[in-house]
Amino acid sequence: MDERILHIQNCMYQYSRAIYRSIKDLIDPYVAQGTQLEYRREVLAACEQTMERLAADPHYFAKPDKALFQDIRRYFPIGVQAQVAWAVSHGVTAAVTFVEQQVEAGAFDGGIARCRATTRKGKPCQRTPLPERDYCPSHQHLERAKVAA
């Protein structure tokens, strides 16, 4: 496997584990020991699945922090859910920032950054985007519309 891909996978693994470690002690302490162990496994699996999806499909995973929190909130007492939501939000935000840096560096899509627009025929634009932008010169008007909205 490419060294860059291995690095990204390792970093995403570290983000999922960091989120899990920050919330694992908050899992419902009032359930049986076996049930609590099962809850921990479910929370860990949800963290890993979220990071895998974020790495596999960074452009089309809207609000990954909210999706992860919705998946795991049932394993925590109501009194600590705000703390769990905060931890999840900060952990996922850090992971999203890392993935965005990798996208800008061209780590995804074969090592070449691509314009996020589609052509009139519905195919992805193959041009290189402007520096620190998501769109090429032909589609830069789409970025301004996004910023204005």
Description:
This protein is mainly α and 149 residues long. The N and C termini lie far apart (40 Å). The mean pLDDT is 86. The radius of gyration is 19 Å and the shape is elongated. It has two domains: 3-113; 114-149, no CATH class. The chain is 59% helix and 0% strand.
User: Total domains, how many?
Assistant: 2
Distance between the ends: 40 Å
Radius of gyration: 19 Å
Shape estimate: elongated
Class by alpha and beta content: mainly alpha
Indicate the low-confidence ranges by residue numbers: none
The SSE order reads: HHHHH
Total strands: 0
Strand content: under 5%
Structure summarized in a few sentences:
The chain has 149 residues and is mainly alpha-helical. The chain is 59% helix and 0% strand. The chain folds into two domains: 3-113; 114-149, no CATH class.
Keywords:
149 residues, mainly alpha, 2 domains, 59% helix, elongated
Please give the structural blueprint:
Elements: H1 3-23, H2 33-56, H3 64-72, H4 81-105, H5 140-148
Helix pairs in contact: 1-2, 1-4, 2-3, 3-4
